[in-house]
Amino acid sequence: MGLQCGIVGLPNVGKSTLFNCLSNAHALAANYPFATIEPNVGVVNIPDERLFTLEKLVNPQRVVPTTVEIVDIAGLVAGASKGEGLGNQFLSNIRNTDAIVHVIRCFEDDNVVHVNGNIDPVRDKEIIDIELQLKDLESVEKKMAKLEKMLKGNDKEAKAGLEVLEVYREHLSKGQSARTAPVEEEDKRFIADINLLTVKPILYVCNVDEKAAATGNQYTQALMQAVAGEKAEVLIICAALEADIAELDTYEERMLFLNDLGLSEPGISKLIKSSYLLLDLITYFTAGEKEVRAWTITKGTKAPQAAGVIHSDFERGFIRAEVIKYDDFVHYGSEAAVRAAGKLNVEGKDYVVHDGDIMHFRFNV
């Protein structure tokens, strides 16, 4: 689907380390600001235990997981909204993403320079918030100026748009992000064309040292309190630890390593899953002897459009969808057994696909 999460943050917070763990890409890593110049893009497999279960039951020739794109974007500094540092480039790159993963430094290390001299995750978060909000305020005011010119012709749509944009301007001027503005869903159409930065969903990642990987520390607690009103998810990850885990050869070695640290799964797996959910995505499956495959769709997608993810002909000539619930497939052990038990449902064009559905499409073109 080409949906992207952008990893953002101040310089030297661990963005590129996390990105390398995610994608096995090798971004330039150096202990100074602006180490990442061009945004690196990695296509990341979504960890999904259901695929392994289906593989055992179906025994296909191959298994294909679903993916999401992760973009490592240059480190931001105060003044970016006015072009400081790599500000203009940073803001342009993040504007092209669908959601934000904000990495915040929550560890002390004298060997790693902090761009602002000391560790303060709440301040660091606010620096990026302010820069994005200022840029959004600029975008809102530019559109308001255009709509004001249209008012002379007594344009009712322009008048309605100005009222909505005024809500956003006031909200942003108070240092609050557009995603929390008190605007009705149908009125958000007035900002669709200006692609506001702070309207994007956000996930905060606290990068901690090894000691705090399982339980967090005073820095992560302070950040959680600061974002409590945002309804945003906060993850605690030790990027250096994730890099060590990535170097282990086998699944068994990784699990032993994690168990010794009191962890149940790699933080990277949690990050990928959370990024996927952040984009409001779900997964459906196709399962046959040739292939078991996961497919990505947006929550609320109907059957014909879900079929179109496989091929446009499937959507154009859609007749019906045969749907098996994942739990039923696992319980009965095969498609034939599910059919015999009467648990295979035939659905039409209005069927809304659910996460985990196993689907077979009938079409004619």
How are the SSEs placed, and which strands pair?
Blueprint: E1 4-8, H1 15-23, E2 40-45, H2 49-58, E3 62-64, E4 67-72, H3 87-95, E5 99-105, H4 121-150, H5 156-173, E6 202-207, H6 218-226, E7 233-237, H7 239-246, H8 251-260, H9 267-278, E8 281-287, E9 291-298, H10 303-310, H11 312-316, E10 318-324, H12 326-332, H13 335-340, E11 345-347, E12 358-363
Parallel strand pairs: 1-4, 1-5, 3-9, 5-6, 6-7
Antiparallel strand pairs: 2-4, 8-9, 10-11, 10-12
Helix pairs in contact: 1-7, 4-5
- How many β-strand stretches? 12
- Please estimate the helix content: 25-40%
Q: Cα-atom Rg, whole angstroms?
A: 23 Å
Shape: flat
**How do the strands line up in the largest sheet?**
2-4-1-5-6-7
> What structural class is derived from the secondary structure elements?
alpha/beta
Count of helical regions: 13
Distance between the termini: 23 Å
- Give the percentage of residues in beta strands: 15-25%
Oligomer: single chain
In the predicted model, the low-confidence regions spanning at least 5 consecutive residues are: 25-37
The largest β sheet comes out as: 6 strands, mixed
Order of helices and strands: EHEHEEHEHHEHEHHHEEHHEHHEE
Give the rounded overall mean pLDDT: 86
